[in-house]
Amino acid sequence: MPTPADPTQRRATISVLVENEAGILARVVGLFSGRGYNIDSLTVAPVDARGRSRINVVTSGTEMVIEQIKAQLDRLVPVHRVADLSLEGPHIAREMALIKVVGTGEHRVEALRIANAFRARVIDATAESFVFEMTGGTEKLDAFLDLMRPLGLAEVSRTGVAAIARGPRVIDDLHGAHASNEARPRRDA
Predict the structure, then answer these.
(1) 103 and which of 19, 85, 107, 138 could share a cystine (Cβ 3.0–4.6 Å)?
(2) Cα(115)–Cα(134) distance, rounded to whole angstroms?
(3) In angstroms, rounded to a whole number, what is the distance separating the alpha carbons of residues 172 and 134?
């Protein structure tokens, strides 16, 4: 999807399956910072008992820059697989946010009304504040935050984007259940 400022740029959600070992996240981040690429969102967590983690990176760039990023990520050891979910087919991308709104009176009532419309959950409440928990696409969270600003938005903590392919397509066969997976075979580092 082109960015409003530059139609030659697109936003990419890239998933990287790696060995869960010390220094791999630093090498991935270093790849971006060393070349002047921006990371819009970054999440990482272990995904299986074999000691692998999944890194989800959201970035923007020209098609050539995104292809360079993917090729450079693929050359890092111990990377097993790099997938551009934005190009490989339909995918689901969500993030979670904790949002603190401080206010009283009409602002408080309006914040609750908007939170209800966005399906945000109240997870903490005092006489002068709320903490909302909200899960959804980045655009949904951004829209909610824009509406909360004039009502007393005080603090935000976001998880970053977690993403996965829709349907039977997988980044890597975690348990040997999908023998027809078209992902390239696991590389041994």
Answers:
(1) 107
(2) 9
(3) 29
Cα separation, 177 vs 168, in Å, equals: 11
Q: What was the pLDDT predicted at 144?
A: 98
**pLDDT tens, 52-71?**
999 999 999 999 999 999 99
Give me the pLDDT at residue 7, please.
76
What is the pLDDT at residue 5? 64
> β-strand 9-19 against 41-46: which pairing, if any?
unpaired
pTM: 0.80
168 cis-preceded (ω within 30 degrees of 0): no
Secondary structure letter of residue 2 according to DSSP: B
Distance between CA atoms of residues 150 and 128, nearest Å: 15
Is-contact 136 95, C-beta < 8 A? yes
Looking at the structure, do residues 77 and 14 belong to the same domain, yes or no? yes
β-pairing, 91-102 with 162-165? antiparallel
Mean pLDDT of 6-35: 90
Question: Domain check: are 64 and 36 in the same one?
Answer: yes
